[in-house]
Amino acid sequence: MDLTLSGLAGYKLAPSPDLATVPFALITVGSAFTTGLTSAFMARYGRRAGFLVGTGVATIGGLVSVLAIDRHSFTLFCFGALCIGIYQGCAGYYRYTAADQVAAEYKARAISTVLTGGIAAAIAGPFIATALMNVTSHEYEGSYILVSVLSVATMGIVAFFKDTSTGTGPKPAGEKPASKLPYSAIVRQPGFATGAFGAAVGYFSMMVIMTVGPIAAAQHGHSAGERTTMIQLHMVGMYAPALAAGFLIRTLGVRWLQMLGTAAGILGVIIGASGMGQANFIVALSFVGVSWSLLYISGSSLIATSYQPKDKARSQAFGEALIMSASAIGGLSAASLLENLGWTNLNVIMLVLLIGCGIVTVAHVVRHRPVADATSG
User: Fold this and answer.
1) What number of CA atoms fall less than 13 Å from residue 240's CA on the CB side?
2) What are phi and psi of 27, to 5 degrees?
3) Model confidence at 70: pLDDT above 60
4) Mean pLDDT of 183-191
């Protein structure tokens, strides 16, 4: 809901149209800068406490956004978006938490199952957000009231969560903290670098194409209705693959799933760069969405199977920081890349990154050919 409305509400509240996308960017920035703190908090106080704090901040974010709209304050609205970003930084650990509850061979399927929730969000979120836009005297106010209501409901669900994994949770009194694994050692863990790089490339390319695709389409004469269709199909591409991810993981394995995600992204940006028709934009956005989904699932799975239980908090935090930083950079740089390079050259840059991701993944597959795939431990 926030992603649907932040640009629209930001445009209405911003002192200058150039600042309209700042709240959208702050969601990603807030998430990127929260991941490390979230992991450290959860390692000390437990997953449930971390998720409760995150949903509490989301509740505040929704209420602050309501107040901002009521007072026509762009600054307050930016703060509300930042709170939602902080919540996203906490919510990123839902998938890892699910993976940590099961045996190694089920981790990838657990992650993909969690991400299927995004299908409901992608379909229902925009419709609910726009349906509630005018239920109060101030446009968009009703939508952000529901953001807080949903956050409170999430707190009620999370309150019943019991963490059955090891290595994360409140530390007994007097227990000495474990020595921290150096970041250089984290990167050398089997599969970590490949997974983190793949997910980061998927997130960066998705954020860039999603953010400026509709703008480029408008520049080339496509109507608002056509641009809406592009975004809707992009969202379907982002989350629908999670339904088939379990089957693909069982048949292909996590590493080859990452290759499939890379191939989908390469196909999308090649078609995006080859023309300015509606079909070119739709295919580019849709396939880049599919690429994000498969790279995010496979990358997260490789990270989740790379570490020992005692190192999971630090490993997950580092991986999440890398992925969310790529997302933030993509969101913040997208408009500038479009302005300076144009739509065609922008797609070529994404193509180079995706080819690099494919090379890294192939090297990892070759290097670990004798070893059982991550789905079998």
Assistant:
1) 12
2) -60, -45
3) yes
4) 89
- Scanning 72-191, the segments in alpha helix (DSSP H) are 74-91, 93-100, 107-115, 117-131, 141-158, 183-188
CB atoms within 10 A of CB 161: 15
The answer to whether 77 touches 61, Cβ cutoff 8 Å, is no
Secondary structure element (H or E) that encloses residue 171, with its range: none
Q: What size, in residues, is the chain?
A: 377
The two structure tokens encoding residue 123 = 């379909």
- Domains, the chain: 1-159 (1.20.1250.20), 181-370 (1.20.1250.20)
Q: What is the pLDDT of residues 355-375, one digit of tens each?
A: 999 999 999 888 876 544 444
**Cα separation of 161 and 352, whole Å?**
43
pLDDT for res 169: 55
- Identify which of 110-114, 124-128, 178-182 has the greatest average pLDDT: 110-114
pLDDT digits (tens, 9 = 90+) for 321-331: 899 889 888 87
Of residues 56 and 96, more confidently modeled = 56
Q: Decide: helix, strand or coil at residue 258.
A: helix
Query: How much is the CA Rg of the chain, to the nearest whole Å?
Result: 20
Q: Specify the amino acid at residue 152.
A: V
- For range 116-120, the mean pLDDT: 79
147 and 65 in contact (C-beta within 8 Å)?
A: yes
d(Cα 227, Cα 130) in Å, to the nearest integer? Answer: 16
| Prediction pTM value | 0.77
Alpha helices in 221-253 (DSSP H): 224-239, 241-252
Q: Residue 273: which of 180, 352, 195, 334 has the closest Cα?
A: 352
